[in-house]
Amino acid sequence: MNYGVILASGKGTRIKDNINIPKQFRKINDKPVIIYTIQRFLKENLFDSIYIVVSKEYLEYTNNILKEYLESTKNIKIVCGGKERIDSITNSINSIVADNGCNEDDIIVIHDAVRPFVTDKILKNSIDGARKYDAVVCAMPVADTLLYSTNNIIVEKIPDRSMFYKGQAPDSFKLKTFIELLDNLTEEQKQKLTGTSQVCTFNNYPMHIIDGDELNFKITTKSDFALAEAIVKGMDNND
Amino acid sequence: MNYGVILASGKGTRIKDNINIPKQFRKINDKPVIIYTIQRFLKENLFDSIYIVVSKEYLEYTNNILKEYLESTKNIKIVCGGKERIDSITNSINSIVADNGCNEDDIIVIHDAVRPFVTDKILKNSIDGARKYDAVVCAMPVADTLLYSTNNIIVEKIPDRSMFYKGQAPDSFKLKTFIELLDNLTEEQKQKLTGTSQVCTFNNYPMHIIDGDELNFKITTKSDFALAEAIVKGMDNND
Fold first, then answer.
1. Distance in angstroms (rounded) separating the CA atoms of residues A172 and A107
2. Interface pTM (ipTM) of the complex?
3. Which residues does A200 contact at the CB level (< 8 Å), separation at least 6?
């Protein structure tokens, strides 16, 4: 089975305006960001089930918008997120295993709700990659000059950027492998975890890179929303 | 004196459409990108002269659009670019020195034509920084997870991103210092030069970081143009 996990329990509302709602629920052209993301996951029928992880106070809200915007919510389940990112991931894994068990060839694709323009190609490559290599991360080559500074004041060196990638999402895994890697983490490592990829690197477990896409950017700033708006309008015009 | 240098000799036309013109000359809302950039430099009267570096085949073209879009071209000079970035920079320095000599407190602010939304604050801070520290680079903290891979296949580590910055532009210098640093470079170093900051790092010369801005992005891809379009429209609405 292929499971999609969409992490949407972030509480980031600090875009410089007064709209007091987490970014994944803000609307682009009258549709919440998270709905775009879910629709990308639904589009090619790549997933047997999709788990949406939201914070407790948004459980009902999410349930309502799913019903409002989606034709069917059949294979979609809403899971309550935890305090930290790792807790949210663990909760989604627990739900998956409770619902379906864990089989040798199950794949889990972990994505951010605030990357609503993930492409079909990325989702396909990520599933195929996880099947082949056990663990894959979607990433883009770094295009900017990288500057390195340990004191945050003076540039110490300009590393060769050809060895650096910007991590995007999704990160995908064989479910079984991922559960084992999670179990292996110490409490200290769990505290330090900021992204899914570290579940691998903390275990020295090889994670293969699959090609990301400029379109698959994370919506964080006000200009990201402006760009998203422009993209959505462009998509509508091409319909 | 404060000199602005705007590098516009790039030939990049490889945005995925059929408009066969370098990005700095493409129009956003009916005005070429480079004009936005020049207008930012003109706005606060921070510069005594502005040198625009363009490739030979665009000398006349540039001259024409400056006349068409700017109220006055009084303190603006067009310089012919060289083969590599370093040659273009050298040509601009030579022009500045030929026109005005080189005085102890002259400042040079080197910017990319394809960063049309550089803010007043950045330009001011960059000039002040160069006066105080001799060499400054404008940069942003890295917001993405950084992945490190020497073979471009498997992630080897996830470096602590808090020590990494994305270089933007401008890079600003005391003119005299910059000329000395340039003179010190070996031919091999000059060949390797991809950005202005390396003129410092190759010399182990300290370069201070000043804060960049999301708005000061480089227009490279089709989505960058979409974002630029959205920003310009937003600016017009706020007028």
1. 7
2. 0.89
3. A135, A137, A181, A206, A207, B155
Out of A13-22, B69-78, B218-227, give the one with best mean pLDDT. Answer: B69-78
Read off the amino acid at residue B110.
I
Per the CB < 8 Å rule, is A142 touching B137? no
Q: Establish if A149 touches chain B: CB-CB under 8 angstroms.
A: yes
What pLDDT sits at residue A239? 44
With contact defined as beta carbons under 8 Å apart, do B165 and A147 qualify? Answer: yes
The terminus-to-terminus CA distance of chain A in angstroms comes to: 32
Would an 8 Å CB–CB cutoff place A18 in contact with chain B? Answer: no
Beta strands in chain A (DSSP E): 2-8, 27-28, 31-32, 49-54, 76-80, 107-112, 135-141, 145-148, 164-174, 208-211
Return the half-sphere exposure (C-beta side, CA atoms, 13 A cut-off) of residue A205.
Answer: 22
| Domain assignments of chain A as residue spans, ordered by start | 2-238
Whether pLDDT at A234 is above 60 = yes
Contact criterion met (CB < 8 Å) for B145 and A166: yes
One-letter amino acid for residue B61 of the chain: Y
Question: What is the nearest CA distance from B208 to chain A, expressed in angstroms?
Answer: 5
Instruction: Output phi, psi for A25, to 5 deg.
Output: -105, -5
Instruction: Scan for tokens 């001011």, then name that residue.
Output: B124
Instruction: Identify the helix (H) or strand (E) that includes residue B173.
Output: strand B164-174
How far is the C-alpha of B209 from the C-alpha of B193, rounded, in Å? 19
Q: Which residues contact B26 (CB under 8 A, 6 or more apart)?
A: B19, B32, B33, B225
pTM of the model: 0.86
The CATH classification number of B2-238 equals 3.90.550.10
Residue B231 touches chain A, beta carbons under 8 Å: yes
Q: Which residue has the tokens 């603006």?
A: B76
- Which residue has tokens 């294979």? A75
Q: Are A96 and A52 in contact (CB under 8 A)?
A: no
B105: DSSP letter: T
Q: Are A145 and A161 in contact (CB under 8 A)?
A: yes
